[in-house]
Amino acid sequence: MYKIIVVEDEPAAAQNILDIIRLHCPRFEVTACADNGEAGLRLAARQQPDLLLTDIRMPGMDGLELITRLHEEFPRVKTMIVSGYQDFEYARTALKHGAADYLLKPVSPSALASSLERIIPLLEETAWRQKAVLLQRLLENGSGGPSPSLVEELKNSFTSPAYRAALSRKNGLPGRFHRSLYQDMKYAVDERSVVMYGRDEMENLRVTDASVCGGPDGEPAETPPWLYGDIPGYTTTAAWRRPFPIEDLPRIFTLLCGSLDRSLIIGKDLFTAANEESCARQRKNSGPDFETRHILGHYLNGNKTGAVRDLLLDSLKKWEAEGRTQLFVEESARLFFEQIRVETGNVPREDDFELMMDDAFFFAADYGDLRDSLLFILDKTIPGKDSPISKIDTPEFFTLIREYIAAHLAKPLNLQSLCRHFGISQTYLSRLFRKYTNQSFLSYLTRARIEQAKKYLAEKNTLVKDAAALTGFNDQFYFSRVFRSLTGLSPSEYRGPLETPVGVPEVPG
After folding, report:
1. C-alpha span between 348 and 352 (Å, rounded)
2. pLDDT tens digits along 325-375
3. One domain, residues 314 and 357
4. Does residue 220 have a cis bond before it (omega within 30 degrees)?
5. CA–CA separation, 105 vs 13, rounded Å?
6. How far apart are CA 430 and CA 425, in angstroms?
7. 3-state secondary structure 379-430
8. Where are the alpha helices (DSSP H) in 97-183?
9. For residue 370, what are the domain limits?
10. Which of 164, 182, 236, 501 is most solvent-facing, going by the fewest CB within 10 Å?
11. Stretch (H or E) spanning 273
C-alpha cells in the first residue's frame, strides 16, 4: 500500500478524492488530510508519505509553493496537482516544480485511478533506490556493525525475517587500476530483490527475500539481462546457501567475494553455492606453475624469441585444459615475465607492465582474448621479427578509433568487437584509451553515449526510450540509471516537459 496525504481546502472536493481512492485505487491509502499548505507540509514531515496530492489555490502557502518546499526537504515524496484551473501555464508550472501529474476538477474516478497507476513506477523506483541506499550504508559500516538508527531503518524497509544473497561477476577479477565508473550508482529490481554494484561495475550483489529465491542452494531468480548489457564473456556467481538477517549482509558479502575470487576460471560460466563451511575448506590457490622456469631460462640464454612465445602459448593451453583459476594463471604469468625481466632486463616500465597485466585479465572474455593480450605484452618485452603485433601508436590512429565509436553508438559496441575491427589486442586498445583519454574504454564509451543522449533529449520531443535506443542502450531501465549516475538527473528531468499543445495537460512518461 502506498500512503497518500491529501491537501484540499474544499471539503466536498477532498471527500470526493478520498472516496475515489478508497473505492477504485486498492494500492493506495489516504493516511491524512489538510486544508492548507503549511499543515500539509507538517503532515508530510511527520508521516513521510509516498505521494502528496494538493490543490493549487489555498489560503497561505499555495500548492505550487508546497510542492517546491516538499521536493527540497523530502525529495523522495512524489506530488500531484488537482486544480480547477484549466490554463496550461498552471500545468506547465506545476510540472516544472516537480509534480508528477496535473488533474482538472471535478476529478473523475477513471482519471484519478489512471493517474495513480501511471505514478506507481515512480513510487517503486523511489522505494527501490531507498533500499539500495540503506544497503550501501550497511556495507560501508563493515565489521563495525550498523548503528541502532540504521537497524531501525533497515527493519522498516526490509520486512522479511531472512534474506539470501548472490554475487555475480562478468569476466575477470577486479583490477587494481580499474575504478568503477558508477561508484555512487545503486539500483533495485523489484520490491523483494535489490541489486547493486559490488566492487566495480562488472560485479553485482543481489539481495533477495529468502521466500522467493529460485533454488535450494539459494540461487536468486534469473538475473535481469540489463545487468551486463551486451558485454560478451563469462559469468561467475557465488550464492549464499543459508538465509540470514539483513544486518548480517557485510559479513556475507566479504565471504562471497572470497568464494568468487578463489573459484573464477577464465572463460567458464560457474555457479558456486557458498556457506561458512565451504569458504573455510575451499581450496586455496595452489601456487603458480614453476615447471616452465628451467625451459624458459634455456630459451632466453639462447635468444630464442620464437621458442619463448611458443612456451607461453603452450602454458596457456595447459592451464586452460587443467581448469586453473584466474589467481593461479595470473600469478604464473607474472612469474613468467618476471623471469624475463631478471634475465634480460627488457620488461616494459613497471607501471606500464602492471597496467597491461591488469587489462589483460580484467577484460579477457576467454583464453583467446588473454592469449592475444599476453602476446602483446611479450612483444613489448622482447620484440621479434615474426611478432603479430605491429600497430603504430599515433594520435591519427586513435582518431580513427574515436570516429568509429561516434558513428556506431547505436550499435552493440564492446572492447572485443572494436579489437576485431581494427585488428589489435584488447591490452593494446586499453593502453591507447588510457594514453589519449586518461580513462578506460568502458568509461569512454558510456560517457560518449550519455553525451549523445543529452543532445537528443535537448530536442525536447525525444522520448526517453528513443534516446536510449539511439545511443545503444537496449534497456530503458538500465539507461535511466546510467544517465542519473553520470548527470545527477533522470533523463526525463534533464529533458524537461515534452512540448505539448497549449490547453492539453501533459502525461508524464
Report:
1. 6
2. 999 999 999 888 888 888 877 655 666 788 888 888 988 888 988 998 898
3. yes
4. no
5. 8
6. 9
7. HHHCCCCCCCCCCCCCHHHHHHHHHHHHHCCCCCCCHHHHHHHHCCCHHHHH
8. 109-141, 148-157
9. 293-381
10. 501
11. strand 270-274
